[in-house]
Write a structure and sequence with these properties.
This protein is of the alpha+beta class. Helix content is about 15%, strand content about 40%. This is ScbA/BarX family gamma-butyrolactone biosynthesis protein.
Length: about 290
């Protein structure tokens, strides 16, 4: 669990790993049929479970195969993914095979400090999805030097009307990550550091997976009522998403071409770009 940066067994995807060549690995994993957050919709697994599998496998291999210290901070610069919804059906065997190939490895002294990970996920002999991420690794000492003062700041309380979970494609109110602003397509990120899946372990900023999920929820609210399941996503993280200031989320560039939706979701703090997500999903494959 610790190597995947998860605290609860039910949230851990990887089960075993082996090295295939110098920088190529195979990770065995298991997808739950039921999960309180990555819940199936319309008989299909959540595409973000695929993304989380890629993320956990990359982190695991950094520690296990490259001797990255456990207190090192993994910071995503980008995470792009594509999935094949026809292979996401719940009810297949839970086993997944995750192939990870690393390149663009950089070092600070003898310690790994950055990498690119290309990931392919398979189920039952079929490719389920692919992804590419760019990651910076920062030692605990360097991180304290850069972020030490921020880590001591309390998370401010937020006061805003609740959003009905169905509006953003969720089943439970505790999974809603948005507050309304009164302007169509504009939201404020809701921060709940007590969320048992999204915030595991001490955090001094909003994790990248939270930003991707918030962007997905904003996309759903724009084109609902059917659940928005992004089959492709290009996500770029420009700077830390701080707890101390409102993070404004905006949906732009919404288009429908034939049966395909595409949209861009951005996040800003104090007028500065924090993240950008570009999603697409086929209308005929949206979940109901």
């Amino acid at each position: 669990m610790q190597w995947a940066h998860r605290e609860r067994p039910q949230d851990v995807v990887p089960t075993h790993w082996k090295r295939l060549s110098e920088n190529r690995f195979l990770v065995d994993g298991s997808w739950p049929e039921e999960h309180p957050f990555f819940a199936p919709v319309g008989g299909l697994h959540d595409p973000l479970l695929l993304v989380e599998s890629m993320r956990q496998s990359t982190i695991l291999l950094g520690h296990a195969a490259y001797d990255v210290p456990l207190d090192t901070h993994y910071l995503m610069r980008s995470l792009d993914f594509t999935c094949q919804p026809q292979h996401l059906h719940v009810g297949y065997k839970p086993d997944v095979e995750i192939e990870v190939v690393f390149d663009e490895l950089t070092h600070r002294g003898r310690v790994l400090s950055g990498m690119r990970a290309a990931v392919t996920v398979g189920r039952n002999g079929r490719e389920v999805g692919t992804g590419v991420s760019h990651i910076n690794l920062i030692s605990a000492r360097a991180y304290r030097r850069v972020r030490g003062a921020v880590a001591q700041q309390p998370v401010p309380r937020q006061y805003a009307p609740d959003v009905p979970p169905q509006l953003v494609g969720r089943l439970r109110s505790e999974d809603v990550l948005l507050f309304p602003t009164g302007i169509w397509g504009h939201w404020v990120l809701k921060i709940d550091t007590g969320h048992r899946t999204l915030y595991q372990g001490p955090k001094d900023h909003v994790p990248g997976m939270v930003l991707i999920e918030a962007a997905r929820q904003a996309a759903h609210a724009t084109i609902g009522p059917s659940a928005f399941a992004p089959w492709t996503g290009d996500n770029t993280f420009h700077r830390y998403a701080e707890f101390s200031r409102p993070l404004l989320i905006e949906v732009t560039d919404v288009s429908l071409s034939g049966a395909d939706w595409a949209m861009k979701v951005t996040g800003h703090q104090d007028g500065e770009a924090v993240f950008t997500s570009v999603f697409s999903a086929g209308q005929s494959r949206r979940l109901s």
